[in-house]
Amino acid sequence: MFALLAGAASAAEVTVAVAANFTAPMQRLAALFEQQTGHRVLASYGSTGKFFAQIGNGAPFDVFLSADDETPAKLEQGGAAVPGTRLTYAVGRLALWSRTAGMVDAKGEVLRGDGFDRLAIADPRLAPYGAAAVQTLRSLSLLEHLQPRFVTGENITQAHQFVATGNAPLGFVALSQVQVDGRIGEGSAWVVPAHLHEPIVQQAVLLTKGRDNPAARALLDFLRSEPARALIGRYGYDLARP
């Protein structure tokens, strides 16, 4: 079990930029981390592309949990992240989801019909899950046909909100947003087969600002721990080897 790393006297704060798809698990991970270490997590959630720009402009984050592996590598190459600190904390899964029970079938054939007029998607220029959705539609030879129906959110949270509020009858979301403990909550969903898009390898990295912050390094260690990995897996993520 992850050992207690710090007492109250040595507790510190860590500011974390977190990809929007990881909001729910990160909230629970932060609570567990704080309980076990005494350190405090200050998390911000948004699109990977926007965080990349903000970090490049000096945003005061210690750790970045990206929705891909390319962005942390770019930050490292550009001197904004500490070399050798990248780790794969999760491999994301994409889902087609509707809040209407029975609307989405087990094979995603709903995409080939005309029973919907809008399809929510995260901006593929900013959000790796949006890019994966575009790749999926291209693999299915449906991109050109369905692109006019896109309702585009800045990040995967907005794409999910479009569907949750009824502004779009269905959309591509992160599986973690609609599944916990292997079960889809409200509505209906198709878990997109991983071969239809490039792997969504999600990496964390220590940023230059957090180089000397013990809480930042402790958080990265915590993400490697079995309790953290078990919790991440409950949200439908695949896990890389520790």
Oligomer: single chain
CATH topology of the largest domain: D-Maltodextrin-Binding Protein, domain 2
Distance between the termini: 15 Å
CATH-level-4 superfamily name of the largest domain:
Periplasmic binding protein-like II
- Tell me the count of domains: 2
Question: If you average the pLDDT, what whole number results?
Answer: 93
Radius of gyration: 18 Å
Strand order of the largest sheet: 2-1-3-12-4
What are the secondary-structure elements, in order, as H or E?
EHEHEHEEEHHEHEEEEEHH
What does this structure look like?
With 242 residues, the protein is an alpha/beta fold. The chain has two domains: 8-91 and 199-234, D-Maltodextrin-Binding Protein, domain 2; 93-196, 3-Layer(aba) Sandwich (D-Maltodextrin-Binding Protein, domain 2), CATH 3.40.190. The chain is 31% helix and 23% strand. The protein is built from eight helices and twelve strands. The protein has helices at residues 23-37, 48-56, 70-77, 128-139, 143-146, 156-164, 214-223, 226-234; strands at 13-19, 40-46, 63-65, 87-92, 94-98, 119-122, 150-153, 170-174, 179-180, 183-184, 188-191, 200-206. It has a five-stranded mixed beta sheet with strand order 2-1-3-12-4. Strands 7-6-8-5-11 form a five-stranded mixed beta sheet, sandwiched between helices. Strands 9-10 form a two-stranded antiparallel sheet. The longest helix is centred in the N-terminal third of the chain and has 15 residues, at 23-37. The radius of gyration is 18 Å and the shape is globular. The model is unreliable at 1-9 (pLDDT under 50).
